[in-house]
Structures are given as structure tokens and as C-alpha cells.
Amino acid sequence: MASSTVEQVQFPLLQHWADYIYRPCTIPYRFPSDPPHQATRTEVLWLEVFRKSIPSFRKRAELDDTVADASEKAGKFALRYGKILDDIQSNPEKHGGPPDGILLCRLRDICLREAGFYDIFRKIKDEENAKAIKLLEHVVDTADAIKDDGERIEHLVKGVFSGNIFDLGAAQLAEIYSSSGMSFQDSFENLLPRPWVIDDLDQFKQKWLRKPWKKAVIFVDNAGADVVLGILPFARELLRRGTKVVLAANNMPTINDITYEELVQIVSKIKHVSEDGKETFFEVDARQLMVVNSGSDLPVMDLTSISQELADAAEDADLVVLEGMGRSIETNLYAQFKCDSLNIGMVKHKEVADFLGGRLYDCVIKFNEAIP
């Protein structure tokens, strides 16, 4: 089974107050008073969420033409992961429990790799990346045509939400994609109206316009429209306003998340290198744009386990951006940092919407200014 060999360290910008303990799990699955060997209602609820994802993962695995006997092996994956979820429901302390989003994602990827699958979404990621790159110039031009800085920032934030809907880890979205595909423009036009369930957009805009950051670290999410049409135009705006940008992408494949190697290839395709060696990204200096390996191999993020490369690159950052439901909402919504931070993503599980008191496909933009 393939595994990560990247050295794991703690993200250096996590806050270390005496009364604050970082926990990479926004929704508490259980409390200390809950019986240890009996699944809680929340655990049962989330075990069912992951159980519902099995058919779409099995279907995608069956289509993996890089694996011999893919259909048979996909069936073994489905049975094995389903059995693990049943075991955990019977006794939450099995398989490394009690469970949380990180453990359940990790067990699913382990089952896939034990069955012989390394990247069952690779083909669809490649296709979506290619489609998105063709649309990127239009998306950038549309943003540049907005002369008011505040309006342009709001437009770019909405672009991040619009791209983030391309998430094949959510069973309902996987079905929508399989039946009809997804359109970035349609998603943009159909965003739920403000106010969103968490809506700090105005505060974020005011801070950006008042004093741009020197360096931003952005934890990216999905391939295709998400990273290409959502994050890259957003990052370009940071660059053009004088901010160095570090894009942190996964070390290994998981769902349809973009990997470090894939993102490096995308950035190399959209950069323009002049005869004198100057690198630009749609007329913005691209030398201040860096892509690093986050060290993660999951669609969620535990900031106590990131790569040394990312830790070094982030040391002097004054803005941390966590993007996507898994990284910014399900695992790090309440994370506290030594610098300004932005959590941004679309809510794609009803269970998350219910927890937040919002709507399915609601938007979250949570901005925290650093406390001096």
C-alpha cells in the first residue's frame, strides 16, 4: 500500500494560549460523559454519511482502468469499508476510534489502497483541470473588468464558493456530477443569497483594503473549477496587491482533491515566461507564487501533521486561508492562529448545515483578525 514519507510537524502559526487546545474536529461526535463502547447519536449519524458515500466510491473505482479486475476489487473495497463502519457502530473504540471525520476519511482511503486503488479520481481530475484551464482567462478578465476593489474582492470570493461545489466526496454531489455534470457559471449564478450562515465578508474586505497582507498561505481543496477558477483568481488578486502567496496542496491523492504534483503542473501551464526569464500569471508577477506539499493525504486537515516544507514556507505568513468544507468547516472552523485567518467553503452535507444552523449549499466565510 502506498504511504506518505513526508516528515510531519505542527503548523507553526497555530495559537498556543494556556486555555486553548487545538482540536481538528468542529462537530463533537462524543463527550467525555458518553459511554465509551456505545455509539453516540452523532457518531451514528456520521457513520451513515460515510456509508452513503460507498456506492459512489465503488462506482468510481470500477471505472479505474489502471487497475486489473477493478470491478471485483471495487466490490472488496465496498464490503471492507462497510464492515469497518459496522464495527465502529457496534463499538466506537474499534479501528482506532472513537471516530471523527479524520479517522473515517483515513479508513476509507486505507481500504481503497488495500484493494489496489491509488487514485480512483485521477481521470476525472485531469478532465476537469483541462476544462477549467480553458475557462480561466475569461474568469480573470471578468474579475479585472470590475474596477471597484471591494466589489472585485466580493466577486472573487463568490468564485471560490462556486468552484468549491466540485466535490465528489459528498454523495449527493457525486450523483449530480454523474448525471448532468457541473457548471462553474451556473454555480456562481445560483449561490444562496447573503447573509450566509457565517458571513464575515465585509470585515474581510475592509481588512484587505485597509492593509494588504505581506504573505498568505492557502490550503487548497478540489481539482478542476475549485482550484483553477476559484482559488487561482483569488490568489492572483492577492499577488497583484503585493501579497506573496503559498498554495499548499495534498501530498497524496484523496477523493478529487488536487495534489501537489498536479497543482505544480497546472501552475506551470498558466504561467508565461518571457525571453528575459520573467514569470507572469495573467500579467501579474508570478515569482511571488509558491506551491508546496502540505504533507496531508486526506480531504480534511489536522494542522498538527503538516510537512516541514510547508512549516518553513508559512513561518512569516500573516494570513492563513483554509478552503473547502473538509479543511475549513469540518475540521478547522474554530482553529486559532497567531495571524489573521480566513475559513471559506460551501456546506455540502445536510448534517453540517444543521449543525451550523444554515442551509444545504450555504456559504461560510469566517474571518478572524490576529489578537496583538
Quick synopsis:
Residues 50-364 form the Damage-control phosphatase ARMT1-like metal-binding domain. By secondary structure, the protein is α/β, with parallel strands linked by helices. Helix content is 45%, strand content 13%.
Keywords:
Rossmann fold; 372 residues; 2 domains; alpha/beta; manganese; 7-stranded mixed beta sheet; 3-stranded antiparallel beta sheet; 12 strands; 14 helices; AF1104-like
Overview of this protein structure:
By secondary structure, this protein is an alpha/beta fold. It has two domains: 31-114, AF1104-like (Up-down Bundle), CATH 1.20.1700; 122-368, Rossmann fold, CATH 3.40.50. The protein is built from 14 helices and twelve strands. A seven-stranded mixed β-sheet has the order 2-12-11-10-3-4-8, sandwiched between helices. A three-stranded antiparallel β-sheet has the order 5-6-7, covered by helices on one side. Strands 1-9 form a two-stranded antiparallel sheet. β3 (215-219), α10 and β4 (244-249) form a beta-alpha-beta unit. α6 crosses α9 and α6 packs antiparallel against α10 (225-240). The protein starts with 7 loop residues before the first strand and ends with a strand. The mean pLDDT is 93.
Q: Widest sheet: strand order?
A: 2-12-11-10-3-4-8
Radius of gyration, taken over Cα atoms and rounded to an integer in Å: 20 Å
What helical percentage do the residues reach?
40-55%
- Biggest sheet descriptor: 7 strands, mixed
- The tally of helices reads 14
Number of DSSP strands? 12
Low-confidence stretches: none
> Based on the structure, what is the oligomeric state of the protein chains?
single chain
Using the alpha-carbon principal axes, give the shape: globular
Task: Look at the structure and give the CATH class of the largest domain.
Answer: Alpha Beta
How far apart lie the N and C ends? 46 Å
Order of helices and strands: EHHHHHHHHEHEHEHEEEEEHEHEHE
Total count of domains:
2
Percent strand: 5-15%
Mean pLDDT over all positions: 93
CATH topology of the largest domain: Rossmann fold
